[in-house]
Amino acid sequence: MLERIQNIHRQPLFALLGQARRVHLENNRSKPMRLCALANVKMGGCGEDCAYCAQSRRHSAGIRTTRWMTVRETAALAREGRRQGAVCMGISAAWRGTRLNHPDFQRLMDLIAAIRREKLRPCATLGNINLETAMALKQAGVDCYNHNLETSPEFFKKIITTHTFEDRLSTIRHIRKAGMALCCGGIIGMGEKTRDRLRLIEELAKLNPAPEGIPINCLMPISGTPLEKTPPMDPLDLIRFIATVRIVFPHSIVRLGAGRLGLSREAQALCFYAGANGIFIGRRLLTAANPAPDDDRRLLEKLALI
C-alpha cells in the first residue's frame, strides 16, 4: 500500500492534479461542498501535551480555561452556522477524553440536544472514549465523531507523549462499533518528512470502512507551543497531499481544515480542484482564526461550488 501511495504522490504535479480531478468528478460530481460549523464548548486546561495545541496546560500559549458554553450560546452558534450553510456542527472540549461518569457528561448531552433542535447534525471531538461512552453519544444523536490520527505512528511519538497512537486506534474502533460515522485525518507541516505524511495516508487506508470524512490541517504555529517556530507549509505541498488523499479515498469528504487563513484564494481553489470538498466555517476554529464566513461564501460562489 505504501509503495502505491508513494507512486501516486511523486507524479509531476499537473499529472497528479489531473488524476485527482478525474477521480473526484467520477465519485463526487453531484455532492455539494460540505460546510461544518464548530463550537469549542470548553477551552483550555487540557492535560495532554500535543505539541501543536495551544489548549494544553503544559504549554504557555496564554489560553485560559474558560467556563462551559451554555445551551443558549451553543444554540446561537448552531443557528448562525445553519444560516451560513452548515449541515453539521462539531462540538469540541479540551480534555484527554470523556466518560459516562464524568461530572460534566450531562452538560454535553444538553449541548448535543441544542444542536439537534437547530436542525444540524451533531458531530463530536471529545478525545479518547471507551465503547460505553461511544454508545451513549450515538444514542444521544451524535452522527459523527472526529478523532484524528494526526501523523505517522513513527512521528506521533515526537508530537504527543501523554497517549499513544494505539490509544487513538482504540477510540476509532469504539466509534465504529457504536455505529457512528468517522471523521479522521491529520496535520501536516509539523516538521515531519514526506514519508510520514504518506504513512499517515497508509494508516488511514487500513481503516475499514474508510473514514467518511478526512480533515487535512496545516500547522498554524502558535506562540508558547513547542512548534511555534516551525516554518510555514508550502501550499504546493498541501495541494499535492490533498490530491493524493483524494485518489486513495475516492468517496470520502476531504475537508480543508486549519491553516486556510494562510492560503491565498488561488491556493484554496487548487485544493478544491484537487478534490477537497469540505471546509470548517466560522471566524474561529478551536483557538485559531479562520476566514470570515462572508469571504468563504464569496470564494465558493466565484468557483461555482455552492
Provide an overview of this structure.
The protein contains eleven helices and nine strands. The chain has 306 residues and is α/β, with parallel strands linked by helices. The mean pLDDT is 93.
Terminal Cα span: 35 Å
Give the overall shape, derived from the CA principal axes: globular
Report the order of strands and helices: HHEHEHEHEHHEEHEHEHEH
Mean pLDDT equals 93
The total count of helices amounts to: 11
Number of domains: 1
Strand content: 5-15%
Q: In the CATH hierarchy, what is the architecture at level 2? A: Alpha-Beta Barrel
Assembly state: single chain
Instruction: Give a short account of the largest sheet.
Output: 9 strands, parallel
Order of strands, main sheet, comes to 5-4-3-2-1-9-8-7-6
Name of the CATH class: Alpha Beta
Number of strands: 9
Radius of gyration: 18 Å
Q: Which fold name fills CATH's third level, the topology? A: TIM Barrel
Name the helicity range. Answer: 40-55%
Provide the low-confidence segments as ranges: none
Query: Structural class from helices and strands?
Result: alpha/beta
Short synopsis of the structure:
The chain is of the alpha/beta class. It has eleven helices and nine strands. Helix 1 packs across helix 8 (194-206), helix 2 (13-28) crosses helix 9 (235-248) and helix 3 (71-83) runs parallel beside helix 4.
From the structure above, extract its key features.
single chain; 306 residues; alpha/beta; TIM Barrel; nine-stranded parallel beta sheet; 9 strands
Helix and strand arrangement:
Elements: H1 2-9, H2 13-28, E1 34-42, H3 71-83, E2 88-93, H4 105-117, E3 121-125, H5 131-139, E4 144-146, H6 153-159, H7 165-178, E5 181-183, E6 186-188, H8 194-206, E7 213-218, H9 235-248, E8 253-256, H10 265-273, E9 278-281, H11 293-302
Parallel strand pairs: 1-2, 1-9, 2-3, 3-4, 4-5, 6-7, 7-8, 8-9
Helix pairs in contact: 1-8, 2-9, 3-4, 5-7
